[in-house]
Amino acid sequence: MKVALGCDHGGYGLMQEIKAWLESKGIEYVDFGTDSPEATDYAIYAKRVAKAILAGECDRGILICGTGIGISITANKFKGIRAALCSDCFSAQATREHNDANIVAFGARVVGPGLAIKIVDTFLHTEFSGAERHVRRIAQIESDME
Ligand code: RB5
Q: In terms of CB atoms within 10 Å, which of 17, 31, 46, 141 comes out highest?
């Protein structure tokens, strides 16, 4: 599995901890920035990560900003992206099983590194249930949107 990473300055420090954890587990990732704690704009990185997933370059994504809100709102503008803002492991598991979420987002000002890593671990290691009702509901997310 290849994971796409994106964060703004608010998520930069936490993303470095996530990267170290991914490396320790031998999980491949592509870092789409930002690459310093200098102030920047979260939409830039949400777009890069969403596009990498839709292009099939990466399988899942992790997005972090201060709250996780701006960066997940941006990613969810892309058809085919299901970015789940999670601050607990139950939600991270449920969003994989029920929503087949392809991006997990969280806020570095909301969750600490220990919890963030547990959320990532849960998100990356939980499969979509494939149940008919969930397939149907996911299809409904993008139907009749005009
Ligand atoms: C940056 O200060 C902050 O607004 C951003 O990281 C994020 O929380 C926006 O939703």
A: 46
